[in-house]
Amino acid sequence: MSKSQPIFIYGITIKDDRGKLKNCQLCGVKFTMSVKEHQCKRCKRAVCDKCAPNKAQVQKADGLSKKAHRLCNFCKDESDSLKKFLEQYKISFNKDSFSQQWLQSFGTDTTKAKNDFFNALDDAKLSKDTNAYDIFKAKLEVVINDIDGFVNYSIKDFMMAALKNVESQRQKEVVKTSILRVAGTFLLLYPQIGYSHEIVLITYFLLCFASEASAYILLTAIYAHIIPSQLYPKTTTKYDLLNENAIVVGVLKDALQVDTNDMSVIKSFLSQKLRCYLVTLSINLFLFETTFFIISSVLMSGSNGQMDLLAQMAVLCQLSNQEMQKNKFNHEETELFMLRSLRTNQLSVLYKQTQNCDFESYKKVYITTRSDSIKVDNLNLSARQSMIKPDMQKVNEINQKLQDQIDRRDQELKKLNDEIIQLRDKIKQLQKENQILINQQQNNDSEMYKNKLNDLRIDNQQLKSQIEQLKNEISKSKLQKEDDSKRYNPIIQKTETIDSDYENDLEEISQFKIKYEQQIKNLKKQAEEKKQQQNQPNQIQIDELKENYENKIKLLQKQVIQLQQQNNTEDIRDLKIQNQQLQMKLEKMKDEKNKNELIQQKNDEIDLLTELNEELTKENQRLSKQFRDLKSQSGASSAQQIKVLEEQNKLMESKLEQYNLLIQELMNNINKVKIEKQKQMEFSDLKLKQKEDLEDVKMVAEIRTVQTQLLKGMLKENQAQLTDIINAITQMRQILEKSKSLKL
What we know:
- Residues 392-676 form a coiled coil.
- It is a single chain.
- The protein is an all-alpha fold.
- Helices cover 72% and strands 2% of the residues.
- It is built from 22 helices and six strands.
- The chain has a two-stranded antiparallel sheet with strand order 1-2.
- Helix 3 (110-125) packs across helix 8 and helix 18 packs parallel to helix 21.
- The protein is elongated, with a radius of gyration of 61 Å.
């Protein structure tokens, strides 16, 4: 598209914004060193690589480009759908296709249209008012060039495709001839309408779907039923499109439910742009498919085409509402968005919602005048053509009748305007009367409020008297409670019995503490006795000595048997003496062994005691918490018992501290005993190396047997003690839980 602007036709300027935008206009990705900016040579969008991978020839002002240029995905899709449309319906310039359906909406067909067009050509030759026709003829070639150079890229592709069956050198001449016959005849027969460049544009578009005859009838119907007569080119009075704007706004609010906050921008857009959309029937303002949808639905509506066109405008505004609010009052940017982005699939969905609208109810002024110089019968267009005869007298009579009708309508309009003024005066009077009624109502309300206040005061006094009665009843209830308390003394005695049970439980706990103290004293005594004992020899040495001792015993038994056989009495005595000595030594070793085992056993017991001590401390803490809970939950009857429990708890804690000190002393004493035993072992080892012999082996073996027996006995005793302690602890816990449940 050329950088210069169109001279005659209305179009939307597409600026070359390459290098001025930061993001792709299709996907929104930001342009960077890796994401390069490109330009679609058809719609001039700034796009990225992914959104414009296509290349194709593009229509320019001087014709189709020789080289293939970059095409965005949106244009590629729209261009492909345009080609399918042309092939499917076999669209060709100056041939009937969709015009057959459009003519049926106005009560005619192609055969009648041909007869009417031939009659119109004859009538046009007799026309005397050729001023509009002369202007049209003088500017036709320039306007066609303007159309070829400045229609938008989508309409350009369509027009060039419709002319594909015409030789390229003859295309302009063919287009000029057809438009001259159709629009020229129209202007000669209806000079009152006047000439405008939009007539050429509309005729050009209609000829792409219709023959010259059909295009002429459709052009006549458009100016008779669709374009408001106040917008005819020759009309000199200003027209503000008050009704048309009101209808579009009403459809937006009711059928399309647009937010009222958005209406200010939409109304501004309509006030500036609606005239252009109505005069051009939206040609050159949208993509081809959108324009075709609008014009086809308008023509299919017949005499209601004007309302349908306004409904289409409401749908277009709703689809562009977000962009309108974004651009505010920069309506040129909104127009560019509507041209590039709006398609038929969006338009058709919302258009269905407008079918049930009452358009007449949206009008601000209910009487509008239409030029009767172009009356078209909806059911029979041929009848309208038969009325136009060369007889000038009949024409003058018809014109006189039409003028009389216009005068009558003007008078009716004046009457209606007077009625409107009277109605407005009545409305003002009613408003005044309404205000008076409101004031009266307020006065009545004030009196009502006063009466209500008096009633409330009376109610307040009654409430006070009721409150005093309730106070008296409360005092009576207190006296009754005191009497009831005397009656419920047996129940209190029951609670005292529960407290006595609780005291018994506490006595059992104290007895358990006494037992625990006695056990600790016994353990202390045993630990003092262990100070005189020796440490146990190593397990490995004892096993070796045991083996040697067993071997020597066997040898001695053999020798005794041999000596008895030999009757050697002296040797037997010596052996007996040796046996007695060994037994004495074994007894000593047993004592030492027992002492070592006791030390080890007591060490284990001390470890157990420490563990028990920790458990008891934890149990003591838990009991203290329970005592606190019992103290908070129990009444005045159990307060003294809780104090006793707290004192006993303190005694327990002090005794536990003493027990801990005793255990530490025992541990220190045991360590001292170990050190002394080590010294004794070193000294005894020297003596044993010099004196021990076979007797020592026997003694060690006997010591081992005695040691095992002692260990078994001590373990049983300790296990019994531990079980007693554990059972006592469980009993104490059960007693505390019972006491707590009883208190609750």
